[in-house]
Amino acid sequence: MLFNRISIVISLILIVFSFSLTKAQGGFNVGMKLGGNYTRINNANFNSDELIEHFPNVGFAGGVSVGYNAPYYNIGFTTGAYYKTYSQTFQYIPDSTLKMSWKNNYNLAYLEVPLLLRVRSAGDQRTKTFTYGGPYFEIGLQGGMLLSANQSSPDSLPQRYVGEDISDKFEKYTLAAVIGVGGHQVGTEHWAVTHGIRLTMSLLDINANNVGQGYIPEDGSGAKPYKPFRFISAGYMLAISYKF
Asked: What pLDDT was estimated at residue 198?
């Protein structure tokens, strides 16, 4: 009997506390985000070449975010500016001494600006005002500007490159699709912690030297039509936001 009464009191306290947080949940917010990403510079020609090994790498992302949440609807928008890195290693080890082995590490850095629509699960009148609480789904587009690109080939013969600038081989600007899921952990009336997972894939070919190119597989099977290069990432991001 005592346990039931205690449970009721705790439930009432939680309900009152949640109501007290709803009054500032709508409107604008700004924040800082940091995250890590599993990255891949994807190319269908390389993927189909069984003699080339792929080693996807990890990348870093960080920047500022700006968002708006509708006070009485389960939607919002978010944008921002982020520094983000992508990396990928390709390696070829021949089964014959007549061919040279090579290993290329590509490292790209971008300034990225996403514009995403965020949608929360439907709720009653109270939860509709609680736009910073619970899980969310986001989808949208992201523009990017290449900041740097370099290549390292520490194990390649006959030449070894370390940090060679190859930014002229990549397009200066990109466009990517972004989807994500996450949740808001509300701390106070104005401060909140947000965390989630974002998937990003470039929609355009990031290779700047693709005109008239073909691909010659390492297995000697003959030239293939050129396939575009695209970056892909799956990353976790953690943000601290201030709600106006």
From this structure: 95
Distance CA 212, CA 217 (A): 16
- 237 neighbors 60 (Cβ within 8 angstroms): no
Separation CA 86–CA 37 (nearest Å):
8
Average pLDDT over residues 74-95: 86
- The pLDDT-based confidence of 237 (bands split at 50, 70, 90) is very high
The amino acid present at 204, given as its one-letter code, is L
Farthest CA pair distance, the chain: 84
Distance CA 78, CA 178 (A): 12
Q: Among 20-24, 48-52, 95-99, 191-195, name the one with the lowest average pLDDT.
A: 20-24
Residue 5 has pLDDT above 50, yes or no: no
* Beta carbons of 107 and 60 less than 8 angstroms apart: no
N-term to C-term CA, the chain: 44
Q: Which of 58, 83, 67, 76 is nearest to 128 (CA)?
A: 76
Q: Is 205 exposed, middle or buried (0-12, 13-18, 19+ CB in 10 A)?
A: middle
